[in-house]
Amino acid sequence: MRSIVVTEAGGPDVLALVEVDEGEPGPGQVLVDVAAAGVNYIDTYHRGGLYDMPMPFTPGLEGAGTVTATGDGVTRWQVGDRVAWPRSIGSYAERVVLGAEEIVAVPDGVSLETAAAGMLQGMTAHFLTHDTFPLSSDNRCLVHAGAGGVGLLAIQMAKVQGAEVFTTVGSQDKAELARDAGADHVIRYRDVDFVAAIEGIAGPRPLDVVYDGVGAATFDGGLRLLRRRGMMVTFGNASGPVEPISPLVLSRNGSLYMTRPTLFDHIATREELEHRAEVLFGLISHDRLTVRVGHRFPLADAEAAHRALEGRETTGKILLLP
């Protein structure tokens, strides 16, 4: 089968398409024919060396497909089952061997592409808005990169919770996508200072929470917008990692809270994974959440997909299609 393999950390050019052995599912495992693999910023951190990875490896944590074989002891899954997964490395491939406990069923009415596009980013948006800082109609929040994969989903989930949503985007096209997702206030950060723009709308320090997946470029400004005892949720590094800060910065800005959560700590048990997937697919099935696939690339074009993502040329979700 064909698979993307990384043999050394580096830029998108280290993503090589190679022929590899398919492998067989061992005890407690299944073999899945990959219909679509999701492309996420964490994949670029793995590829580039920000997060250490054993070499060589196949990137990609997220995907969806059809079970084609099962290993010993697997009784829950059958050949032909449609499944998805959010945290199994090796998904940039035509087929992948997965732990039977790492996959969830994709319900009728949800396509495999939608499932692949929604797993990691959809469950991330859910835990951010429902667990890290549970939003309500009394809250104002800022979602950075509102036309991105997590951004579009977080806006929709914040509106389901009744919150007033501010968001930042880089272009008029992206602004329209964010508004269509439900954002109340859309700030084009390339045209105006987002801190001044938000304070011009809502006054000084108006926000209860900032959801920041951008990182270095937006972190300091977000702190200046938080109310006393507000929360900074930094969950990504699209513009580079945030520099270390002194805890005194949080006290000087009004006894702020700060957290750096990850999805994997919110789906650490089988029960948590199933619950969050059930909620996500339920929202999709009942038309309360739209998962936008903005870009589809053949598996062989993984390098181009990473360049587009890191160049901020994308909206919604990027998929690789084997």
Describe the fold and architecture:
This protein is of the alpha/beta class and 322 residues long. It has two domains: 2-119 and 267-321, Alpha-Beta Complex (Quinone Oxidoreductase, Chain A, domain 1), CATH 3.90.180; 137-260, NAD(P)-binding Rossmann-like Domain (Rossmann fold). Helix content is 30%, strand content 25%. The protein is built from nine helices and 15 strands. Strand 14, helix 9 and strand 15 form a beta-alpha-beta unit. The termini are close together.
Structural class call reads alpha/beta
What radius of gyration results from the CA coordinates?
Answer: 20 Å
Number of strands: 15
Would you tell me the overall average pLDDT? 96
Number of domains: 2
Structure described in brief:
30% of the residues lie in helices and 25% in strands.
Write the layout of secondary structure elements.
Elements: E1 2-5, E2 16-19, E3 29-39, H1 41-48, E4 62-70, E5 82-85, E6 95-99, E7 104-105, H2 112-132, E8 140-143, H3 149-160, E9 164-169, H4 172-181, E10 185-188, H5 194-202, E11 207-212, H6 219-225, E12 226-234, H7 247-252, E13 257-259, H8 270-285, E14 293-298, H9 302-310, E15 317-321
Helix pairs in contact: 2-3, 2-8, 5-6
Considering the chains and any ligands shown, give keywords for the structure.
9 helices, seven-stranded mixed sheet, Quinone Oxidoreductase, Chain A, domain 1, 322 residues, Rossmann fold, 30% helix, alpha/beta, six-stranded parallel sheet
